[in-house]
C-alpha cells in the first residue's frame, strides 16, 4: 500500500488548565481546600488572603439570599461564630467534654475503647504479676462486643514466652475479668454472658432464680417464643415467668457495644439551611469561600521589572486570577446545589425522615443546568447543617418505591417508617418482615418482603426472632 498524506477535519474536547483547576477545586472538601489554598498562598506572591471581618449578620445575609442577583454572585455566607449565649437545651451543638490546657484552650480527650477501659480496671486490681499477665492476654482476646474469641490453647501459647500457665489459672482470672465493667465481658457464649449479669443482682430479686434457669438451659426455646411450653417445662405460673423474662430483657447481650473503638468524626458544615420568615433559606458557611485577592504591590512591579521577572509575575498573576475565579465558581455551584436539595427536601426538614422524597443526581442536574458528574463532585464530602442535624449532601439522595396513588416514596422514608413500626410493636409479638410489608402496603407503599428485609438489615435491626429473644430492637 502506497503511503500518502490525508487531511481530515474533526472535533474533540479538551480541558483547559482553568477548567481542570475548577473541577479539582469543586470536589475538594473544606479541609482539603484549606490545604490547597495554603500551598497556593505560599507559592504565589501575587496572592494574598483578605482577613477583613464580615460585618453583615446572618439575618441580613438570609434576606439577601432571596434576591436573584445574590444567587448569581454566590456570595451568601453565614458566619456561625457570633458572640451570643448558647442554648444547650435547644441547640444542635453539644459540648465535646474535653479537657482544658494551661492556656484555657479546650483539648479533646482521647477516646477510650473497650480494651483501654478493661486494662485500666486490671491495673487497679490487686493480683500477682502472673495473674496480671494472664488478664492482659484475656483482654487482648476480647472482641468489640465483649466476648472472648480465643480458646484456652491459644491463650496458653500467647503466654508461653512469659509464663507456663494451665487452663485452670486462665479460667480463674477470666472469672475476675467477667466482673469488670461492663459486667459479663470476657464470656464465651451469650448464655454465660447473661448469667454473669444476673449474678450481679441481689439474691432476693423477684424472678431471679427462674431467670437464671432460663438463660442457662432454655435460651433457644425462649427465642422460639414457646411461652406456654416454657411455663409448663419450668413449672412456673405465667406471672412468674413474665417477671423472670423482664429481668432477662433488661440485660445486655453485647456488653462491649458501649465502648466503641472508633473515635468520633467532626465535620464543619459547608452550608446552612434555616427557616426564616416562613421560608427555607440556604447560606454558605462564612469560611466556605476564602477571600483571596491580588497583591497590588507585586502587581505594580510588573511594568517596572525586567523581562524575565515581568514574565514570571505575569504568569503568577494569571494563575492567581484563575484561582480566584475558580473559587467563586465553586461557591456559586455549591450554593445552587444546596438550594436545589433544600427545595426538594422541604418535607424532610419539616417532618423528619418520613418526609424524605426520592431524589437522584439527574433531578438536581436538570434544575441547575449542570452535568450529573458535576453534581456528584459537589455532593461528595460537603455538609449541610439543618435544624435536624448536619448531613452530607449525598444523604438527601435516594431511590424510590412506588405508592398506591402512582407517586413514589424514598428509600430513606420507607426505612424511617419501618423503624417506627418496629419501635411501636409489642415486645411479646414483634412484626415479621412479611408483617411489616403488609402494614406498609396497607399505608399505600408497594414494597416486597425481601425489600423490607434489606432495609431492616441496612439499619442493623435484628430479625423478629432475634428481637423476641430478649426484646431487643
Structure description:
The chain is of the alpha+beta class and 473 residues long. Among the domains are: 114-258, no CATH class; 400-470, Homeodomain-like (Arc Repressor Mutant, subunit A). It has 22 helices and eleven strands. It has helices at residues 17-26, 30-43, 58-64, 68-73, 114-123, 129-140, 152-159, 167-177, 190-198, 208-217, 219-223, 227-234, 238-249, 296-300, 307-344, 346-351, 361-368, 372-379, 411-424, 433-442, 449-458, 464-470; strands spanning 47-49, 77-78, 99-100, 106-107, 271-276, 279-285, 292-294, 383-386, 389-392, 400-402, 408-410. Helix 5 (114-123) runs antiparallel to helix 6 and helix 6 (129-140) crosses helix 8 (167-177). The termini are far apart.
Note the topology.
Layout: H1 17-26, H2 30-43, E1 47-49, H3 58-64, H4 68-73, E2 77-78, E3 99-100, E4 106-107, H5 114-123, H6 129-140, H7 152-159, H8 167-177, H9 190-198, H10 208-217, H11 219-223, H12 227-234, H13 238-249, E5 271-276, E6 279-285, E7 292-294, H14 296-300, H15 307-344, H16 346-351, H17 361-368, H18 372-379, E8 383-386, E9 389-392, E10 400-402, E11 408-410, H19 411-424, H20 433-442, H21 449-458, H22 464-470
Parallel strand pairs: 2-6, 5-8
Antiparallel strand pairs: 1-7, 3-4, 5-6, 8-9, 10-11
Amino acid at each position: 500500500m502506497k503511503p500518502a498524506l490525508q487531511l481530515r477535519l474533526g472535533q474533540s474536547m479538551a480541558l483547559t488548565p482553568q477548567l481542570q483547576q475548577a473541577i479539582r477545586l469543586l470536589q475538594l472538601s473544606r479541609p482539603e481546600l484549606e490545604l490547597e489554598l495554603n500551598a497556593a498562598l505560599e507559592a504565589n506572591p501575587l496572592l494574598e488572603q483578605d482577613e477583613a471581618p464580615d460585618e453583615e449578620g446572618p439575618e441580613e445575609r438570609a434576606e439577601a439570599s432571596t434576591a436573584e442577583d445574590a444567587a448569581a454572585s454566590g456570595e451568601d455566607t453565614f458566619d456561625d461564630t457570633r458572640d451570643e449565649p448558647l442554648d444547650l437545651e435547644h441547640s444542635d451543638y453539644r459540648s465535646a467534654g474535653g479537657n482544658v490546657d494551661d492556656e484555657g484552650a479546650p483539648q479533646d480527650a482521647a477516646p477510650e475503647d473497650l480494651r483501654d477501659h478493661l486494662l485500666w480496671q486490671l491495673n487497679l486490681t490487686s493480683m500477682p504479676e502472673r495473674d496480671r499477665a494472664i488478664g492482659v492476654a484475656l483482654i487482648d482476646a476480647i472482641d468489640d462486643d465483649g466476648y472472648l474469641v480465643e480458646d484456652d490453647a491459644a491463650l496458653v501459647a500467647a503466654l508461653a514466652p512469659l509464663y507456663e500457665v494451665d487452663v485452670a489459672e486462665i479460667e480463674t482470672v477470666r472469672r475476675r475479668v467477667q466482673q469488670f465493667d461492663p459486667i459479663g465481658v470476657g464470656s464465651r457464649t451469650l448464655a454465660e454472658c447473661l448469667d454473669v449479669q444476673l449474678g450481679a443482682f441481689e439474691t432476693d430479686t423477684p424472678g431471679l432464680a427462674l431467670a437464671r434457669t432460663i438463660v442457662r438451659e432454655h435460651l433457644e426455646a425462649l427465642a422460639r417464643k414457646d411461652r406456654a411450653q416454657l411455663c409448663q417445662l419450668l413449672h412456673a405460673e405465667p406471672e412468674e415467668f413474665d417477671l423472670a423474662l423482664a429481668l432477662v430483657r433488661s440485660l445486655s447481650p453485647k456488653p462491649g457495644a458501649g465502648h466503641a473503638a472508633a473515635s468520633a468524626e467532626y465535620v464543619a458544615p459547608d452550608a446552612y439551611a434555616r427557616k426564616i420568615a416562613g421560608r427555607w433559606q440556604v447560606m454558605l458557611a462564612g469560611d466556605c469561600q476564602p477571600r483571596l485577592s491580588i497583591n497590588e504591590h507585586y502587581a505594580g512591579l510588573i511594568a517596572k521589572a525586567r523581562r524575565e521577572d515581568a514574565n514570571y509575575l505575569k504568569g503568577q498573576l494569571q494563575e492567581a486570577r484563575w484561582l480566584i475565579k475558580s473559587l467563586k465558581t465553586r461557591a456559586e455551584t455549591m450554593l445552587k446545589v444546596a438550594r436545589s436539595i433544600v427545595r426538594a427536601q422541604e418535607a424532610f426538614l419539616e417532618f423528619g425522615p418520613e418526609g424524605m422524597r426520592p431524589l437522584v443526581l439527574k433531578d438536581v442536574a436538570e434544575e441547575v443546568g449542570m452535568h450529573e458528574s458535576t453534581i456528584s463532585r459537589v455532593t461528595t464530602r460537603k455538609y449541610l447543617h439543618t435544624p435536624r442535624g448536619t448531613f452530607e449532601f449525598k444523604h438527601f439522595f435516594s431511590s424510590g418505591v412506588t405508592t398506591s396513588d402512582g407517586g413514589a416514596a424514598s428509600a430513606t422514608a420507607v426505612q424511617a417508617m419501618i423503624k417506627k413500626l418496629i419501635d411501636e410493636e409489642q415486645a411479646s409479638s414483634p412484626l415479621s418482615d412479611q408483617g411489616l410489608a403488609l402494614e406498609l402496603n396497607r399505608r399505600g407503599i408497594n414494597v416486597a418482603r425481601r425489600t423490607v428485609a434489606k432495609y431492616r438489615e441496612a439499619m442493623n435491626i435484628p430479625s423478629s426472632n432475634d428481637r423476641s429473644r430478649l426484646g431487643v430492637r
